[in-house]
Design goal:
38% of the residues lie in helices and 15% in strands. With 205 residues, it is α/β, with parallel strands linked by helices. It has a six-stranded parallel β-sheet, sandwiched between helices. The N and C termini lie far apart (42 Å).
Length: 205
């Protein structure tokens, strides 16, 4: 079985995540796709007025339904900072004979050699890079070849057309006034019901 793993804070999950996940399912011929909300990110602090961990998990579950994906709370249950290699070690025990694909965007992919135990990550999973901008592909392909030559990493740059949107832009102060079109409908409705990110049912967005 071929399994895709997509981690992130999902604060909130947006159509960029959905676009990347759908492309990965189609191009990698995935049998299963799992969203993995981060518990405590190792390299950044959660933004002020963020959704709670439980709310981020619930939003990830709502987003996952739109593309028939699963959601794992493996990193949320873990105490301390959530390093990707810890998650892959656990999942490799569960999926011993399966092919794991770690799906990530441009910034994360290009920083892989700075990750904790990054060489072990290459031994535990294949890496799929999703362009954040359409002109990212050339540098992603060059870096993919570099990782394969230096470490024997199995990588692939997806052919998807980039959908440029970030969770930061969808929170207050992100500079984007109309956010509804960038969110899965169930996620947007949840945000309104819970009055998250300064948005309430009284707002016309």
């Amino acid at each position: 079985m071929r399994i895709g793993l997509m981690g992130g804070t999902f604060n909130p999950p947006h159509m960029g995540h959905i676009n990347a996940a759908r492309s990965a399912k189609n191009e990698l011929l995935l049998d299963k796709l799992i969203f993995i909300p981060t518990g405590k990110p190792p390299h950044k602090e959660m933004a002020e007025r963020s959704a709670t961990t439980a709310q981020r998990l619930e939003m990830a579950q709502l987003a996952a339904k739109s593309i028939d994906a699963d959601v794992s709370d493996i990193e949320i249950r873990r105490e301390g900072k959530s390093f990707t290699v810890y998650t892959l070690r656990e999942l490799r025990k569960e999926y011993r004979d399966d092919e794991l694909w770690l799906i990530m965007g441009t910034d994360m992919f290009l920083s892989l050699e700075t990750w904790f135990c990054f060489e072990e990550i290459f031994s535990l999973a294949c890496i799929a890079a999703v362009p954040r901008e359409n002109d990212d592909k050339e540098k992603l392909l060059a870096y993919s070849e570099q990782l394969e030559q230096k470490y024997g990493a199995k990588t692939r740059v997806l052919e998807t057309e980039a959908l440029t949107v970030s969770s930061t832009e969808l929170r207050p102060g992100g500079g984007r006034k109309e956010i509804q079109k960038f969110l899965p409908p169930d996620v947007y409705d949840y945000i309104v019901r819970k009055n998250l990110y300064g948005i309430s049912g009284c707002d016309k967005i």
